[in-house]
Specification:
Leucine-rich Repeat Variant, 2 strands, elongated
Length: 276
């Protein structure tokens, strides 16, 4: 630790800590930061700060974050600060026993920060939060078996996270989701035996994903798909009879893929008379 020319206690930044480009050192109300009036002034000997670099009063979030990384033990004293960035960043370091008071914070950034650290028994209480970012944090962290209640969330981003983490045995309930991205996540994880639910999906991307994972029976169905991109995926995976069928496809890309597949099948299973 060292002292600046102004007598402010500072800690020499690590090599990875570079000073910010933003020149202003103003607080959240746009008033120039005054170290003499700062509530932290009496603690500078024990808890270092540096104006324009690591400052809890600065409106620049990176400087606030750096202050709390230097002084994580001070976080609980700032949980009721009027600036939402201070509350949100302090919540990353405060004791989890103090976070319950911020679950109903008026700012969604603070509530989202809280959702990243709440224990499981409290996390679901934020599942009905009015802001999507908070509910997304819940969907990212809550135990998979508790995600069913979020399957019908109004926001596709929340549902997409549910589809990524929901136990496979419950994924079928999301196969008819109105959003393509959600159904795509389902197609990537649904058990192959259940992929037929998505074989006629309106989205080409979903059907291609199904073709990448489908079993033999479903591949035969997808070989007739109207989109050549789906048939191209099928051509890479089918057995001999279906590969021969696709070798006569109207699209050159599909024919080429089928011919390559046939050649590979013949190499792996030579005629009876040619076997040693």
């Amino acid at each position: 630790m060292e002292r600046s020319a102004a007598g402010v206690a500072t800690r020499r930044p690590a090599e990875s800590d570079t000073h910010d480009d933003a020149p202003e050192t103003v607080d959240w109300e746009g008033v120039p930061v005054d170290c003499a009036k700062c509530p932290h002034a009496a603690k500078r000997d024990r808890q270092p700060c540096e104006i324009g670099h690591a400052c809890v009063q600065d409106r620049y979030a990176r400087r606030v974050d750096r202050f709390f990384r230097w002084n994580p033990e001070s976080a609980e004293g700032w949980l009721d600060h009027p600036y939402f960035e201070v509350r949100a960043i302090a919540a990353r370091h405060a004791s989890i026993f103090r976070l319950t008071t911020l679950m109903s914070d008026p700012d969604e950034t603070v509530r989202a920060s809280v959702a990243l650290r709440l224990p499981q028994r409290l996390l679901l209480k934020l599942a009905k939060d009015p802001h999507r970012e908070v509910r997304i944090r819940v969907a990212q962290r809550v135990s998979p078996h508790l995600l069913v209640g979020l399957c019908n969330d109004e926001d596709y981003g929340v549902r997409a996270w549910v589809a990524r983490r929901l136990p496979p045995k419950w994924l079928s309930r999301m196969a008819r989701d109105p959003d393509t991205q959600v159904r795509l996540e389902v197609a990537r994880r649904l058990e192959p035996a259940l992929l037929g639910q998505l074989a006629s999906d309106e989205s080409l991307l979903v059907r291609r994903t199904v073709a990448e994972r489908a079993g033999v029976a479903l591949l035969a169905c997808l070989a007739k798909d109207e989109a050549w991109e789906v048939r191209w995926e099928v051509a890479h995976r089918v057995g001999g009879a279906l590969a021969e069928q696709l070798a006569e496809d109207v699209e050159e890309e599909v024919r080429t893929a089928a011919l390559v597949r046939l050649a590979a099948l013949r190499r792996s299973d030579p005629p009876e008379g040619s076997r040693p």
